[in-house]
Design goal:
This protein is of the alpha/beta class. The chain contains nine helices and ten strands. The chain folds into two domains: about 210 residues, Spore Coat Polysaccharide Biosynthesis Protein SpsA, Chain A; about 60 residues. About 40% of the residues lie in helices and about 20% in strands. The radius of gyration is 19 Å and the shape is globular.
Length: about 300
C-alpha cells in the first residue's frame, strides 16, 4: 500500500486538534501514513502536547496565519506520500477512510480529487456533504447534495463524479500537482477548495465523491453566524472565484448580477436583521475586486 500524507492545519484549537490526532492514530493502525500538522499562527505553541499525542507527527509552525490554503500548502510542500489527504483538524475519521479513497483512485485514474461522505459529529445521523452540483457561473451559486438529510445509508454505495469536493476532507495524488498547482492562497478563507477543483478540471481530471467511507465534522449544524470576516471574504471571494475561473464576458455578466442584485439583497437582509455593522464589509469585499488583480496576494485583514 502506497504512503498517504495526511495534512491538517491548527489555528488556536489545541483541544480539537488533540482529538483529531488521536482519531488518526487509532484509525490508521497498519496503514502507511505520515501525519503533518501545520500550526497557522496560533497564539500559543502546543508542539509538546501534539507530539505526546502523536510521536511521529511532522510539526510545522508558521508565525503568521496564512489562511486555509496557505497553511495546507506548507504541509503539501514537505509531504512525501504518493497521496495527499487534506483533513480539517475538527474532524474524526473512519478506519477505512484511507483504504477506500486510495483504492477508488487506483481503480479510476481519471479521478483528480475525491471527498468522502461527511456527517455532523454532534448529529451523526445528519449529512453535511454527499457531493455538490455544478456551479452556475452567472450567479456563482451551486447546491450541496444530501445536506441536512437524515442518513439512512442512501449514499453508502455511491461512487460518482461530482461538482466539487469539500475542504474538510479531500485526497489527491501528489504527482498531479505539477499540472494543477497548489491551492490559491489569495482567497485566505472560503472558495479556495472550489477553485482548486477548477484547477483539476482544467487539467482534465474528474472531481469525485464516494459514500463508501465517511468522516465526522465538528462544524455546527447551525453554522452561518454572521461576522465581519465571514461577510468580507464570502463577498470578496465569490467574485474572485468568477474572475479566476471564467472569461471576461461571463465575469462582466456576473458582475452586473452581483452588484445590481445579489449584494443589494444581502445588504437589505443585514439591515432588516439590524446588522448595520456588516454592510460596510459587503462594500469592502466588492471594492477589493476592483482595486486588485485576480492574482493579488492577500496582505492581511483588519477589523
Amino acid at each position: 500500500m502506497k504512503l498517504t500524507s495526511i495534512i491538517s492545519v491548527n489555528f488556536n484549537q489545541p483541544e480539537v486538534t488533540l482529538a483529531f490526532l488521536r482519531s488518526v492514530k487509532n484509525n490508521t493502525i497498519g496503514i502507511p501514513v505520515e501525519l503533518i500538522l501545520v500550526d497557522n499562527g496560533s497564539r500559543e505553541d502546543h508542539e509538546a502536547a501534539f507530539l505526546a499525542a502523536y510521536p511521529d507527527l511532522k510539526y510545522l509552525r508558521s508565525e503568521q496565519n496564512l489562511g486555509f490554503a496557505g497553511g495546507n500548502n506548507i504541509g503539501i510542500n514537505i509531504a512525501t506520500g504518493d497521496y495527499l489527504l487534506l483533513l480539517n483538524n475538527d474532524t474524526e475519521i473512519s478506519p477505512n477512510l484511507i483504504s477506500v479513497l486510495t483504492e477508488t483512485m487506483d481503480h479510476n485514474p481519471e479521478i483528480g480529487i475525491i471527498s468522502p461522505l461527511i456527517l455532523y459529529y454532534d448529529q451523526p445521523d445528519t449529512i453535511q456533504y454527499a457531493g455538490f452540483t455544478e456551479m452556475n457561473y452567472l450567479t456563482a451559486r451551486n447546491k450541496g447534495i444530501g445536506n441536512m438529510e437524515h442518513n439512512r445509508g442512501q449514499y453508502d454505495q455511491d461512487s460518482r463524479e461530482t461538482g466539487y469536493c469539500h475542504g474538510a476532507a479531500m485526497m489527491c495524488r501528489s504527482a498531479e500537482l505539477d499540472k494543477t498547482g497548489l491551492m490559491a492562497e489569495n482567497y485566505f478563507l472560503y472558495y479556495e477548495e472550489l477553485d482548486w477543483c477548477e484547477q483539476f478540471k482544467r487539467a482534465g481530471k474528474k472531481i469525485w465523491f464516494t459514500g463508501r467511507t465517511k468522516i465526522y465534522h465538528k462544524e455546527s449544524m447551525s453554522v452561518g453566524k454572521e461576522s465581519s470576516i465571514k461577510t468580507y471574504f464570502m463577498t470578496r471571494n465569490r467574485m474572485l472565484f468568477i474572475r479566476r475561473n471564467t472569461g471576461w464576458l461571463n465575469t462582466f455578466l456576473f458582475s452586473c448580477f452581483y452588484i445590481g442584485i445579489a449584494c443589494p439583497k444581502q445588504i437589505f437582509i443585514y439591515l432588516r436583521k439590524g446588522r448595520t455593522d456588516l454592510v460596510k464589509w459587503v462594500f469592502k469585499g466588492v471594492l477589493w475586486n476592483f482595486s486588485q488583480s485576480k492574482t493579488s496576494k492577500y496582505l492581511g485583514f483588519k477589523i
